UniProtKB/TrEMBL annotation:
E.C. designation(s): 3.1.1.61
SMART domains the UniProt entry points to: REC (SM00448)
Species assigned in the record: bioreactor metagenome
Top-level EC class as recorded in UniProt: hydrolase
Single GO term (MF): protein-glutamate methylesterase activity
UniProt record, GO biological process: phosphorelay signal transduction system
The keyword DNA-binding is assigned to this record: yes
Gene: cheB_72
UniProt keyword terms in alphabetical order: DNA-binding, Hydrolase
Keyword Signal in annotation: no
Designated name of the protein: Chemotaxis response regulator protein-glutamate methylesterase
Domain Response regulatory residues, every copy: 3-120
Amino acid sequence: MLRILIADDEYLAIEAVKKIIKNNIEDANIVATASSGKEAIIKVNELSPDIAIMDIQMPGIDGLEAIRQIKASNPNILFIVLTAYDLFDYAKESIGLGAVEYLLKPIKKDQLLMAIDKASKIVKSKQIQNKWEYELKEKLTLVSPLLENQFITQHMYAFEDFFSKDNTGSIV
């Protein structure tokens, strides 16, 4: 299940995003909403969502600063920036912070769904990679003692052979 947080200071924007997600994405769970950057930071730290849909202009800590702070403690979370500001500097900074998409309000359903689908594929890919790495580490943990034992045994016999015979093959 894809875990999503929505952060926007506009109630109607949050409700619109929630409705689009609930009506179109079966495997998504909106774990929280936030109306400020500070609230988003707190809720992300508590709930560890996979994706945060963030507005830029919010009271107190803005969305970009919230992304910076969240990334510092939660580097795996993905961001979709949703804003009313069509400014190149905001888009550039958002992408520089690792945002998957930069979408403009009013939000278009298809654009939001495509952005969430893109982020979802990245999340699933990371989950598969993490599972594979975990399984590999588990296997290595099981095999390491056997390999170490075999290595030591082989080298003991080689060491013993080296010191137990002279050049003619006679035992010294």
